[in-house]
Predict the 3D structure of the following.
Amino acid sequence: MRTSAYDIVVLPGDGTGPEVIAQGRRVLDALAETGTPKWTITEHPGGAQYYQRTGREWEPEAEAAAHAADAILLGAVGWPGVSLPNGDIAGAALVLGLRSRLDLYANVRPCRLYPGVTHRISGEYRTVWSPAKVDMVILRENTEDLYAPFHGRLARAGETELTIDSRVITRKGSERILRRAFETAQRRDRGAPEDGARRVTCVDKSNVMEGCRFFRETYDRVASDFPTIGRDYAYVDAFTQWLVRNPEHYDVVVATNMMGDIITDLASVLQGGMGFAAGGNIGDDHAMFEPVHGSAPKYAGKNQVNPFATFFAVEMMLRWLADRNSDRLLTSQADRLERAIAGVLERGSARTYDQGGTATTSDAGDRVIEALRGERR
Ligand code: IPM
Ligand code: MN
């Protein structure tokens, strides 16, 4: 167990990123009131709006700090109309750049519906699924596939005639995300809601694509090292309907990068929407945690967006640090935070606009902090 303080680097980024991150920091401060363990937090600007002002996505010190940090907490990056000369989103250095440079190969996105949370479908707030039916973790490969930097454009006489995005699926990239998926299934305290069984669902398009065939072959090879975990296969197109129709079937789901990007946004609807979806970008030596929702420019500066995804990202970060450092005190802090969040959600005392309520971003922070302090008393 570590005795020195954990060094947490915070990158608030663009739009609503700084607003949700401010609440995440308040919650961390409230947790720290109970004493050990301690962390220090350093915040660095960066992103598309910073690029617009300065011509740089962030400063070299910020990048160096992120590389040296024990953990990184990211808000969101991206701003309409601001892109890099090569067409990539400005601020990509903070998200895609760190995923690649720190080799954060596993994008871990828990999808769990908490009691008290509704979902918005077709403009109405409903409870379609009971919380007992939605409890899965989706792992998305985070460094290769269509995100690998092999893109090209053929322009003759100024006219684009051909573009190419190459899909890169490697043995190393597949093996390590698949292994992590099986390890995740082994460690979870409950299996799929449907039957309590532990299973890893391999989502791919191996009926068409070579990379997916290789991913599935690798899945089978890795699966043989985990005889107690059930094997399960889904073509991605069929998966989208099964996911919505029978979310209770899923325990751990694993996919390549691009398909994982798409299915995790879809899955977020099952947990109440993007306002609740948190992700961890996890490697062997580094990790970065973030709300998945993005910078939401329309809501920026309004103190209106849902900060729960950030609270869950903070909880994931504390758990990752705790596991890595065998720090039981930090685990109990993460447990406290989860109980506080779950209590507020169940009481419905901080419903933001996306839940049909009127609570502001900072109201939600207030409620979670009160819950933390109330528990302490
Ligand atoms: C995500 C986002 C990013 C991605 C964007 C911002 C580049 O959509 O984290 O899911 O495509 O991975
Ligand atoms: Mn995405």
Remarks:
- Residues 78, 95-96, 261, 292 surround 3-isopropylmalic acid (ligand 1) (CB under 6 Å).
